[in-house]
Design goal:
Distance between the termini: 40 Å
Number of helices: 15
Largest sheet: none
Number of strands: 0
Oligomer: single chain
């Protein structure tokens, strides 16, 4: 389903452009169409998707981050700097999408951004975004693995259902092989 592969390059570029359409229904449909792309097709258009991270509409920036999260870590790694820059955005949803996507990268790809990630964790005021950051922070600070997992597990008892939801998501997105190596 959808359109993938080099035969549809112009259609993918057209759909990416529709992320900025004035009609919210058109933007929503563009996101749905672009979500049908396989990871290889998304990788071909990664630079075009990254360009959307700098747009003024927060919905476009969130959609771009979400699309990038579907890339395999090797295809995503060259775009880490653009995602790290999104951590400074004022919109919580944009920061959440960016940190969620960064969590898909391995420690080597995140290495240059450790100070920025540490600062982000220390200064982030929204609990859901801080919890989500654990997937990336565990990779760059494996010595804190158990402490961070314990913190996330404790959030499963939080009275706020949004925090419990993000805690479950975070636990479900931990790299099991990584956790086993460092536990």
């Amino acid at each position: 389903m959808g359109f993938s592969g080099p035969a549809f390059t112009s259609e993918v570029i057209e759909a990416l452009g529709k992320l900025e359409d004035t009609g919210w229904g058109v933007r929503d449909s563009a996101v749905k169409v672009l979500r049908t792309l396989d990871a290889a097709s998304l990788a071909v258009h990664a630079a075009d998707i990254v360009a959307k991270l700098g747009r003024s509409r927060k919905e476009v920036r969130k959609a771009a981050s979400a699309l990038l999260s579907r890339l395999d870590p090797a295809s995503l790694a060259p775009h880490a700097a653009a995602l790290v820059a999104m951590l400074k955005q004022s919109d919580m949803g944009v920061r959440f999408a960016a940190v969620e996507t960064l969590g898909r990268l391995d420690a080597a790809a995140l290495h240059d951004y450790v100070p920025t990630l540490d600062e982000f964790e220390a200064n982030e005021s929204i609990a859901q975004v801080r919890i989500c950051a654990a997937t990336a922070l565990i990779k760059v600070h494996p010595e804190t693995l158990q402490e961070r997992i314990d913190e996330v597990v404790a959030k499963l008892q939080d009275p706020n259902p949004g925090i419990r939801k993000v805690a479950l998501w975070t636990l479900g997105n931990l790299d099991v092989a990584f956790v086993r190596r460092h536990a």
